[in-house]
Amino acid sequence: MTAEFEVVLTDLADLNLPVFDEPNHPRMKKYVHDHTKKWSAIVEGSDAFVFVLPEYNFSAPPAFVNAVNYLSQEWAYKPCSFVSYGGVSGGLRSVQVAKGILTTLKMMPIPEQVVIPMVFGLLAEGKFNAEKLHEESADALIAELYRWAGALATLR
Predict the structure, then answer these.
(1) What are the residues whose beta carbons fall under 8 Å from the beta carbon of 64, sequence distance 6 or more?
(2) Which of 5, 30, 34, 155 to pair with 128, CA 20 to 30 A apart?
């Protein structure tokens, strides 16, 4: 099976979401701010997600948690996976925190992921130098994410 996705890179820094500022609960989908409407359209139009998470203080980054909390229904019945990085744990603790949040929103985190421990040793001149294990893990992740996206499509 060949996994074919149209990949859209979304950088939360570019979205520049402030700390949650909508007057209504996200479940109502009564968004008043343009930044929320834009974010909602991105998530609503996506079939699957790969979240790239660093680990700081044994947790998911606050910008990720804030961005997820902006929305509710848009996340439901979509598979997700992770590329995590950090020190010796490779960001695994960050992913564990993120999974708890995402499953509450009816997302399906799949087991396949890319873990990058000791990431700073793989950076040179502002570029990440993936090792064979990272590439193979990414290939397995995408193939499985594609399967899950198809299987969950009927629920969406």
Answers:
(1) 12, 51, 53, 98
(2) 5
- What is the value of pTM for the model shown? 0.94
Q: Which residues contact 8 (CB under 8 A, 6 or more apart)?
A: 42, 46
The CATH classification of domain 12-155, taken from the options 3.40.50.2020, 3.40.50.360, 1.10.340.30, 3.10.350.10? 3.40.50.360
Please check whether residue 76 is in contact with residue 27, taking contact to mean a CB–CB distance below 8 angstroms: no
Instruction: Report the alpha-carbon distance of residue 55 to residue 10 in Å, rounded.
Output: 19
pLDDT, position 2: 55
β-partners of residue 85 are 54, 116
Tokens of 49: 């997600």
Residues facing residue 108 across a β-bridge? 79
pLDDT digits (tens, 9 = 90+) for 110-148: 999 999 999 999 999 999 999 999 999 999 999 999 999
Cα angle 151, 38, 100; round to 5: 50
**Helices and strands, number each (H, E), in the chain:** 5, 6
Closest CA to 9 of 83, 62, 75: 83
